[in-house]
Amino acid sequence: MTFTKLMASIALVALTTTSVAAADTVRMGTEGAYAPYNFINDKGEVDGYEIELGNELCKRAELECKWVTNDWDSIIPNLVSGNYDTIMAGMSITAERDEVIDFTSEYFPADPSSYVALAGADASATKGTVAAQTATIQAAFIAASDATVVEFATMEDTIAAVRNGEADSVLADHAALKDIVDASGGALAFVGDGVSIGGGVGMGVRESDGELKAKFEAAIAAMKADGSLNAMIAKWFDGRKAGY
Amino acid sequence: MFEYCTDPKLIEGFQWWSCYLSNGKHLNFYFSFLVVLSLLALTVPFILLFGFTGALARRASFTPLRWFGTIYTSMVRGVPDIIFFLFVPIAMDQGIEVIRHKIKCSDWSESIRQGNDFVVCTAAKMPLSSSPQWVHETYGFMLATIAFAIVFGAFAANTIHGALGAVPKGQLETGAAFGMSPRQIFHRIHLPQMWVYALPGLSNLWMILIKASPLLFLLGVEDIVYWARELGGSKTARFAYPHGDWRLGYFLFLLVFYLFLTWASEKFFDRLMHRLSRGQNTAASMA
User: Fold this and answer.
1) Closest by CA position to A72, among listed A56, A91, A57, A55
2) What are the helix and strand counts (H, E) for chain A?
3) How far apart are CA A59 and CA A199, in angstroms?
4) A121 and A149 share a domain?
5) With 0-12 CB in 10 A as exposed, 13-18 as middle and 19+ as buried, what is A134?
6) I need a surface site. Which of A206, B14, B137, B157 has the fewest CB within 10 A?
7) What percent of chain A has pLDDT over 90?
8) Total structural domains within chain A
9) CATH-assigned architecture of domain B19-78+135-286
């Protein structure tokens, strides 16, 4: 938050403290480090597919929403302890996570995960030491396979590990990697075959928060029905056809 | 910020840098320096307060109070910082919310713990979900200050306890021989001489506190290390100012900042020590 904004909001609060607080302000949690799903733009604000989608869903569900960024590592614990009310952070729906929190139906189809290595590497790079972000479906997948997994706190760190040779390749969502491969100027490339793990990406809510889940569920269904979800996916993911 | 910054793709050289370094994200980065410095400045009085309370409690003649002082210093010093920083703010936050819940929503029939979920009524949220972001940030900052004060206060308590014990007994007995009351002895003889022994330990604590500031991010406060990592991370063409992995540059800048802070602190403590040693019967006053 910049200083001017801070002063402006202090003034605003001073003016509005007497008014009754809107009961249905929803705090939306995200990571802010997984472009194009969610990231911090050059203005220092959250931006990305999930931000635009989340704002649209809130508008349709007639909720007032505020975005909060949180470390990926502690994003679920902070949801269940009530620091925010939803998670939209490129989180795949898995049975393990579903035991702790609830998911809406998916708003992004299951995306095959891909391996990325230094340009010129062959498919054997996917069998050696593979980097993945901590507590992701990819990290669990590598751990269960023959390859050795090295975990990092952020996506950025996993790419850096491949660049400096600490890991042979990195496994992550194809869409998130594509941005990075495109920007690498030929230094990085996809290797081997993609793997299909996990379900689609959904919004996480507390298990006790059925009412909120139902509201977002309805809004997602409406956006799937009128095609606006497809259009939004095409806009953020290079014209990808989601086919909802 | 500047007029020519509207399309960063067209500019280069000095203009590009001036735009890049003054974009909204960088302003947040600069602001976070203020956040860290003010956290350091705000915590110090609390650390000294906790430290003195702990040290005096350990010297108290009232036994339960002495136990309290000993338990506080031993327990907090023995638990890893990172566990404490995760535990104290969450426990405090949930404790406050439970109390508010009991007062404001006494007609609430459901339980607060539902499986994994911690659920209190909307009115009991601290801060309220509808509060603007700066309230949430200030609240997080406050919890961080208290967590830091509790942890570092325990270390300070031990240092001060040791320093109080290091003052020669003869000094205090002389005071008594002059007819001073225990209170006068403490304020005029014991306390002023204690500082010389406490200062090296306290300056160590200050140095550790400076370096501990990245722990702030654990508590949800976006500190300088968070922003350096965020800004330095490679930026794809989706961003207005695309660049590769510049984290090394940003971290070098932080290195310079922390070194400068350490250097300035050392100068300050040297002077303070010199001043406090004046007229004291220790080897330091000979230098």
Assistant:
1) A91
2) 9, 13
3) 26
4) yes
5) middle
6) B14
7) 55
8) 2
9) Orthogonal Bundle (1.10)
Q: What residues of chain B, 11 to 30, have a C-beta less than 8 Å from chain A?
A: 23-25, 27-28
Q: How many CA atoms lie within 13 A of A197 on its CB side?
A: 20
Strand partners, B243: B235
Written as one string, the DSSP assignment of B14-52 is HHHHHHHTTSHHHHHHHHHHHHHHHHHHHHHHHHHHHHH
Classify residue A12: in a domain, yes or no.
no
Closest residue by Cα to residue B224 from B261, B263, B258, B266: B258
User: What pLDDT shows up at residue B285?
Assistant: 61
pLDDT for B241 beyond 60 = yes
Chain B contact set for A133 (CB, 8 A): none
Asked whether residue A147 is assigned to any structural domain, the reply reads: yes
Q: Which residue has the tokens 């280069």?
A: B12
pTM for the predicted model, two decimal places: 0.79
Average pLDDT over residues B265-284: 86
Q: How many CB atoms lie within 10 A of CB A239?
A: 8
Put simply, the answer to whether B115 touches A207 (Cβ < 8 Å) is yes
Best residue in A30, A72, A83 for a mutation probing chain B (most B CBs within 10 Å): A83
E strand residue ranges, chain A? 25-30, 33-34, 38-40, 46-47, 64-69, 86-87, 102-103, 113-118, 129-133, 148-152, 169-173, 188-195, 204-205
What residues make up the domain containing A126? 113-195
- Taking contacts as CB-CB distances below 8 angstroms, the residues of chain A near B223 are none
Which CATH number does the domain housing residue A30 bear? 3.40.190.10
The type of residue at A153 is: A
Band of the pLDDT at B1, cuts 50, 70, 90?
Answer: low
Closest CB to A82: pick one of B25, B120, B240.
B120
> Does any domain span residue A2?
no
Please return the burial class of A118, using the count of CB atoms within 10 Å of its CB with bins 0-12, 13-18 and 19+.
middle
Instruction: Calculate what percentage of chain B has a pLDDT beyond 70.
Output: 98
The model's pLDDT over A216-232, given as tens digits with 9 standing for 90+, comes to: 999 999 999 999 999 99
Could you say which of B114, B132, B137 has the minimum Cβ distance to residue A13?
B132
A154–B133 C-beta distance less than 8 A: no
CB contact under 8 A, A40 and B133: no
CB contact under 8 A, B114 and A208: yes
Instruction: Tell me the shortest Cα–Cα distance from A201 to chain B, in angstroms.
Output: 21
Q: What residues does each domain of chain B span?
A: 19-78+135-286
Same domain, yes or no: A147 and A170: yes
